[in-house]
Design goal:
The complex is a heterodimer of chains A (about 475) and B (about 90). Chain A is an alpha/beta fold and about 475 residues long. In chain A, about 35% of the residues lie in helices and about 20% in strands. Chain A folds into three domains: about 5-65 and about 210-280 and about 425-465, FAD/NAD(P)-binding domain (3-Layer(bba) Sandwich), CATH 3.50.50.60; about 95-200, no CATH class; about 285-415, no CATH class. Chain A is globular, with a radius of gyration of 22 Å. The two termini of chain A are about 30 Å apart. In chain B, helix 1 packs across helix 3 (about 40-55) and helix 1 (about 5-15) crosses helix 4. The N and C termini of chain B lie close together (about 10 Å). Classes of the chains: A alpha/beta (about 475), B mainly alpha (about 90). The structure holds flavin-adenine dinucleotide.
Chain lengths: ~475, ~90
């Protein structure tokens, strides 16, 4: 041990939630250390460079976007809690997005009125029901665990009588934040509805690295320690207390408490006192992401959508693929060029289209290296072919491609099954079987960039700063 | 520390918590909550900043005392007599 003095808090993981929690604790003078197994920060929302180009891992859209000066909502809250200025994140708002089903589409933007008018146009009989749904969402109380758990589909079918509208509303909300298959908890539904339809989408011109750069700079500036390539192998438990963490290299560090963003099952597995783990806690939903670099801007071929959520039939299928590596019936098309960037920033260097498709971890993980390379090419083609029924065909203009898979996600974030939204069973209070070990991030319940930061902040406040 | 200095301390903390907020028209008698839309997390932050900067402890049952600038300064005056302005 390099130093005998224990940390006030040890944080596992330098993703959005761990960094945000770290800033809170370091700001209040705690001795805090973030341990990250990867050689870089960001976790599920990191960035990388291939063939001389910068890519974001996860960033399609920063959700929960509200205008400067807005005081309510998660974005304003995060900025205040982390002492950032609104302009620090340099968020450029979306142009506009779409939910595309066969023969029906709903456009939406950062103004709810557009979606309202689309519902009126496409589902004239549902106008009052849609307003009733919005009212129920406004009434939903975030802290009510019992209300959180009820079936979102149940509330929806009690409120809206056209099943197609229900499926169309669920499609983007599940895509951007539902860890469970088929149905969505009512609480999660409300959180996602607010973050997408009542608030909105934005993106920093420089992508996720801008946000991460601010987080890490602030954390270090406050005296926080960040150790990269330092994975936690074991959390040693004595008398129902976490006493120290042992790193992959055998080094041991002691902390009065531990806050883990590695995931629920993943964290339990690290504890020296746990023998049996419930495999049902592992998330099953994961994706491939097919990234195409174009020789022109998407708008020049008639694509002005920021995000398109598509589905090929009247029923939206949110489930692990039944018998193939991927399921292309539904997907998301993101065109990062289609944000309203500030004049001084101009347009991105390249035209880019990103397609997200549901994938099966086990099948991808079971491939030989040769098969894996072949399947990557095959599924790039198939996922893109499925998407161009809902967005102008960009294939003739592609100059470079990249594709990452569930195994890539697992390899760089250590989340079981490469599950992007973690376990279907969330622990809203962040507690574990040990009184000084807590969870934050994905498996605590808030997902997405803003959600994960909110989670880190609230768990730090609740468990590490009181008393 | 005198009441006027304590007021400046609170303004300083509020500026820190909400840098985009314009505090010039803040009214002493009106609740912060009605003027600034601070939520419970922000209130906790005022308490924690006081502890961090001046080692002043505000127990949970006293949180209502921090409703407005007027009540906050009143409440803190006896607690902060020995504090030195930074
Ligand atoms: C393809 C894709 C697209 C996405 N698109 C969007 C989007 O457009 N908008 C949006 O808001 N969100 C998006 N997300 C979701 C968002 O990225 C995540 O919800 C969020 O980043 C989760 O943050 P976290 O801190 O909870 O978890 P993580 O980022 O997973 O952080 C956990 C960290 O812990 C580290 N770790 C794990 N085990 C150990 C160990 N034993 N020791 C040390 N460190 C360990 C991991 O390496 C990781 O860095 C997307 C995600 C993906 C994968």
């Amino acid at each position: 041990m390099s130093d005998n003095q224990p940390y006030d808090t040890i944080i596992i993981g330098a993703g959005m939630s761990g960094l945000a929690a770290g800033i809170r604790l370091a700001h209040y003078d705690q001795r805090v250390c973030i341990l990250e197994r990867h050689y870089t920060i960001g976790g599920l929302n990191s960035f990388y460079r291939v063939n001389g180009r910068n890519y974001d891992v996860g960033l399609h859209a920063v959700t929960n976007f509200t205008q400067k000066g807005t005081k309510k909502g998660p974005l304003a809250r995060i900025l205040r809690q982390l002492r950032f200025k609104y302009d620090d994140f340099a968020l450029a708002p979306q142009k506009g997005s779409r939910i595309a089903f066969p023969d029906h589409e709903l456009r939406f933007s950062n103004e709810l009125d557009l979606l309202r008018s689309e519902v009126k146009k496409v589902f004239p009989g549902q106008v009052d029901n849609f307003e009733a749904l919005v009212a129920k969402i406004a009434d939903y109380d975030d802290l009510d665990q019992a209300a959180f758990e009820i079936s979102g589909r149940q509330v929806l079918s009690d409120t809206i009588s056209d099943p197609l509208l229900i499926e169309m509303i669920l499609c983007p909300l599940m895509w951007y934040g539902n860890a469970a298959e088929h149905d969505m908890a009512w609480g999660q539904f409300c959180i996602m509805f607010r973050s997408i339809f009542l608030e909105g989408f934005a993106r920093p011109y420089k992508g996720v690295r801008l946000i991460l750069k601010h987080l890490v700079k602030r954390f270090r500036g406050l005296g926080g320690e960040l150790k990269l390539r330092k994975g936690v192998k074991t959390i040693h438990v004595e008398n129902e207390q976490a006493v120290c963490v042992e790193l992959d290299n055998g080094e041991q560090l002691t902390g009065k408490r531990i806050l883990s963003s590695a995931g629920r099952l993943e964290t339990m597995r690290m504890c020296s006192d746990t023998s049996e783990l419930d495999p049902r806690l592992a998330g099953q939903l994961t994706f491939i992401e097919s990234i195409s670099v174009l020789d022109r801007e998407p708008s020049s071929i008639g694509n002005d959508d920021t995000i398109v959520f598509y589905n090929d039939s009247e029923k939206f299928h949110w489930e692990r693929p039944a018998d193939e590596l991927c399921d292309t019936r539904t997907g998301v098309v993101c065109s990062p060029n289609n944000y309203v960037y500030a004049d001084e920033e101009g347009q991105l260097a390249d035209g880019v289209v990103r397609i997200t498709t549901i994938a099966d971890y086990d099948r991808w993980a079971g491939l030989s290296e040769e098969e894996y390379q072949r399947e990557k090419l095959r599924w790039y083609d198939r996922s893109v072919a499925a998407s161009v029924k809902y967005t102008p065909d960009f294939r003739p203009y592609v100059i470079d491609t990249d594709l990452f898979t569930p195994t890539t996600i697992n390899r760089f974030t250590w989340h079981d099954n490469g599950a992007v939204y973690g376990s279907p069973d969330k622990v809203l209070d962040g507690r574990t079987h040990l009184n000084n070990l807590f969870l934050c991030g994905t498996d605590q319940g808030f997902v997405g960039i803003i959600g994960a930061m909110m989670s880190g902040i609230s768990m730090a406040n609740m468990h590490c700063l009181r008393g | 520390m005198a009441p006027e200095q304590i007021k400046n301390v609170i303004l300083d903390i509020l500026t820190d918590i909400a840098p985009d907020e314009d505090l010039t028209d803040l009214k002493d008698e009106v609740n912060f909550r009605d003027q600034l839309e601070l939520d419970s997390m922000d209130f906790l932050d005022i308490v924690m900043e006081l502890r961090k900067r001046y080692k002043v402890n505000v127990p949970e049952q006293d949180y209502p005392e921090l409703a407005s600038m007027f009540s906050t300064v009143n409440y803190l005056t006896p607690k902060m007599v020995d504090c030195v302005a930074s």
